[in-house]
Amino acid sequence: MKKNILLKSILLITVFTLITSIYLVINLRNSYTEEKIQELKNYTGFFETALNKSEYDDINMYLKDFDKNNEVRITVIRGSGEVVFDSDEDYRLMSNHSNREEVILALNEGEGIAKRFSNTVKKEMLYYGKYFEKNQEVFILRTAIPISSIYYFTKNILTNYIFIFLIGLGLTIFTAFSIINKLENNYKKIDDAISRINNEYYGEKLIIQDEEFKSLINNFNIMSGKISKKIETLEFENNSLNSIFKSMKDGVVVINDDKQIFYNNPIVKNLFNVENSLNERKLSDIVRNYELNKFIDLFYQEPKLLTSEIEINDKILQFTINSLKGYSNRFRTGAVLIIQDITEIRKLERIRSDFIGNVTHELKTPLTSIKGFIETLKNSENVDRKTEMRFYDIIELETERLSNLINDMLVLSEIETTKGKNIEYKVRKAVEEVVDLLSHLRREKNVDIIVNHSNNDIIIKGDRDRFKQMLINLIDNGIKYNNEGGYVEVSYEIKKDKLILKVKDSGIGIEEKDIDRIFERFYRADKSRNRGTGGTGLGLAIVKHIVKSFYGEVVINSELNKGTEIIIKIPTN
Ligand code: ADP
């Protein structure tokens, strides 16, 4: 760069100097010649005056004396061309001058100027001829000066000029060199700073002291500061958005014009059960689902907010799609797709609606039965005492069933809405009380209750009544769903800061297909087998909620016709 600038400026200076020097020399030469011509004219005028006064011989003498200290040559020529006087040469030896340019011009036009080499004086001369009449005779008064003095003058000027030019050029090169050096240094500093910004070192500040660069550097530093702040804000926003998207339970997918995935948060892979990256892949290649493809196509035909509920991989997913206009140059109409897993919500909704249906049904059955028997008793006059008593028994049983149902529902609601007590109690005592409470039932069913008390006197903190309720429900089930002569075994111990309570029975067991559902409200494993147990279908739902309020967990192992074991694990701290 430096070489280039230097060469260009030297060339420019040289051309400019050359043009100005040629112009100057021509001008100087012209004005010098003009001056010399004027000088010759003055001399000629003077001679003319002298000649007008004098005779030939006197003039001759006078001119010779006059001319001695002057380089101007004077010649007097007759109109015929005969030379009658010459200040420098012997006029008698001089040839006829009628063909001389200045003589011809003077004869024709009164005066004339000519430049040529004089064979007489062997010099390049400037001639001035002037028409002159004396005693009716025509003369040409000619003055001449060696023209070589003009050449010397020009040469002199040129030599000086070249000398000054060289000094000027030297100075120019030196100044240009130092300016270019300075420029180059500053250019490099700015270039380095821009490179660093390009390499993401934002906020780069420049320090250059030169006054000429003050405004540029100032603006650069302001710009750099602004970029840095903007990037910082963008990074913050980007990180925040990323964190939000990453921690979101809903899937977020950004799709470009070609329906390719441009961005997705991590949960999307779980929702679609895929492991590989989704980037730049089409949704239709990842999830082969007709409904979803149709949904996306519909959006791209007419981009507007759309929502659809689609079942994919046993999950109920709610898709909401909307356009993402002006998001980037890479998009004309991108789309943002929000995917919500609403499987649980739909399941809960179903459970709730089932619950209402179940409650109504559970209440309606005993009520219909009670109403029916009361009507029969009222309308039948000839009912014998025995039948009457049987009807009363049934009404009593159904009333008890209703009471149990309402009681269980109240217990469930109480567990769901309140936190429960948090006081210390002895597990052994609670277990013994429950076993005592249920002893009549076990006798009725002829089922043995075996309790394996822990060696230590375990004391835990929590709601004792709830603990007992949980145990009642579990042992009650163990007796109810048992066979004649069967047993229910209760054991408990502390293991790794957890109370492990096991209720095992030798009963009818539960089919595998029912195991997952028996903790649901009103769910009964096999309706035909359960008939007559008087159960409400809420017992295990209550257990589940009590364990939940203890921050514990329930495990169930059961085999049809062999028995069931329910293990409760409750943290003790
Ligand atoms: P229920 O009031 O009908 O006993 P639960 O919620 O206590 O209601 O139990 C739900 C269903 O789970 C019962 O109807 C029964 O079919 C099954 N069940 C519960 N415990 C046992 C068990 N120990 N053995 C076999 N089946 C059981």
The unique ligands bound to this protein are: adenosine-5'-diphosphate
Distance from N terminus to C terminus (CA atoms, Å) equals: 79 Å
Strand order of the largest sheet: 2-1-5-4-3
| Total number of domains | 4
Give the helix tally. Answer: 16
- Chain-averaged pLDDT: 87
Judging from the principal axes of the Cα atoms, what is the shape?
Answer: rod-shaped
- Estimate the strand proportion: 15-25%
CATH class category label of the largest domain? Alpha Beta
Could you characterize the architecture of this molecule?
The structure is a single chain. The chain is an alpha+beta fold. The chain folds into 4 domains: 2-152, PAS domain (Beta-Lactamase, 2-Layer Sandwich), CATH 3.30.450; 248-341, Beta-Lactamase (2-Layer Sandwich); 347-416, Orthogonal Bundle (Helix Hairpins); 419-571, Histidine kinase-like ATPase, C-terminal domain (Heat Shock Protein 90). Helix content is 53%, strand content 21%. The protein has helices spanning 2-53, 56-67, 101-109, 148-198, 214-247, 267-272, 283-286, 290-301, 343-379, 385-417, 427-437, 439-445, 464-480, 512-515, 527-530, 539-549, and strands spanning 73-78, 83-86, 111-118, 123-134, 137-146, 251-255, 261-264, 306-312, 315-325, 333-341, 423-426, 448-452, 459-462, 487-495, 498-505, 553-559, 563-571. Strands 2-1-5-4-3 form a 5-stranded antiparallel beta sheet, with helices on both faces. Helix 1 (2-53) runs antiparallel to helix 4 (148-198), helix 9 (343-379) runs antiparallel to helix 10 (385-417) and helix 13 runs antiparallel to helix 16 (539-549). The radius of gyration is 64 Å and the shape is rod-shaped. The mean pLDDT is 87. Bound molecules: adenosine-5'-diphosphate (ADP). Adenosine-5'-diphosphate (ADP) binds next to helix 13 and helix 16.
